[in-house]
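not sure who needs this but someone in the group chat was asking about Peptidyl-tRNA hydrolase from Salinispora tropica so here u go. i didnt clean anything up, its just raw.
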Amino acid sequence: MAEETGPWLVVGLGNPGRQYAGNRHNVGFLVADLLVGRLGARFGRHKRAMAEVAEGRSGLGGPRLVLVKPLTYMNLSGAAVAGLAQFYKVPPARVVAVYDELDIPYGQVRVKFGGGEGGHNGLRSMTKSLGTKEYARVRFGIGRPPARRDPADFVLSDFGTVERKELDFLVDRAADVVESVVLRGVEPTQNLYHGA
């Protein structure tokens, strides 16, 4: 059945352009970049969508992954995701969004299936374009901004000096979580990683 053997679409959410590269809002891109290295693949522009795409297999004989970094701005990510899901014949249940989450303390990675967007414009765009909330989410905690700092300004600022000391390790862990979702499923991944 195609539902069991088809590819997975793993979407790292972020904003294109060098000026955004180190922003908290771009942690999805950081995880996608690490995963593409693990696959031994390279990102290239897709002919049918405003996105960089790479393909490869996860683990030894694992399922095929289509890694995606939308090249639209965050608020418009959904059109590229929906177009690629259609192109690769990936149902929403096999789509994984990787993104920054204000409501989770810095460095914690949480997984869920479906649910709301929590004010995240990239997710809101994906939900609207896919026509459903029923897709997996890997949520990288960035924590709340300090008192009186605008959350919009906070997510578009770079990780702080102390945060950067742990960032590579945490991005690596988030990539492990994505691979676990693909290989094991959401619930087993929650059991494995949520207590850690």
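also The first helix runs from residue 2 to 5. if thats useful
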